[in-house]
Amino acid sequence: MNTSDNITDSAEIYWSKIEKSVLAPILTTEMVLGVLGNGLVLIVKVVCKDHFQCLYWLPLFSLTISDFFCSILIICGSLLAVLSEGQISPWCEVVSLLKFTFITSSIGSLAILCVQRFMGIPSKGKMLSVLMAVACVASWCTGTIFGAVPVAYKWIRYDPAEMLCAVFWESSYSDMLVYILCAFSISIFVPFLLIVFCSVLTCIGFGKDCASQGDLSSITPLLVMLYLVCYAPFAASELVLLGRFDLSPSPEWLRSLSSVMAYLDCVLNPFIYCTNKDFRKAVRILFWNKRRSTFPDPVLTSITRLE
Description:
Elements: H1 3-47, H2 57-84, H3 91-119, H4 127-152, E1 156-159, E2 164-167, H5 173-203, H6 220-230, H7 232-242, H8 252-273, H9 277-294
Antiparallel strand pairs: 1-2
């Protein structure tokens, strides 16, 4: 080994330490905020559901479930991978499968929410609401199916840039092209078109949204904008990959950015929920009832007469 090789190895070790010192705190913050925030949202939705109005509750509940488990499993897995510098099988394959499942369930839930608002279909009481529930389950199932394909064909290995196990194409460009086009056209592109189409028509007044102004579904535009911004690096990374006929991956910085930004979407969604006045009130009621159960008000038990 010559001097230049030693310098290169030292530089790689140096930059890996820099990346770990930067990414570990970021992932820790995202994991803690994601778990606590989405956990709180789930508790409020279940315990305090009578204190706020949510006409289209099903897709919002599905979205929060996806964000919560993404924070526990995927973000935590990425943090452990950064600290231990790798992931082992079978956890490696499980994380890869679940990540795509959570991506498709999130965009699928948002698409169903936008369709419900546009058509004025509540999440209970009508036959069409059953169809919306089936579509919600289908978004989870399609993500699981397409996430299982790379695992079955053993296309998965650890990617330090993405901080988890990802799909690597080393044999055939045609296999990559067919898989990405099928997975994205069914699981990503169709929901994306529904989101854009229904959101635009609802905003310009062509929708049949029957929810009141204070309904929790009023946060839908914020959820949609946040999702599109946070997953833009992920989409760009896949598009770059499609343009490389030598099967080389997209730049490392772009892959790292796509993971961090995707996790950021899970972290910020609970804050968006709290922009709704009635939901904030429900959160305060939850904490107030908890405080009263922990420190009950004093009760007068007897009166002693002083002579």
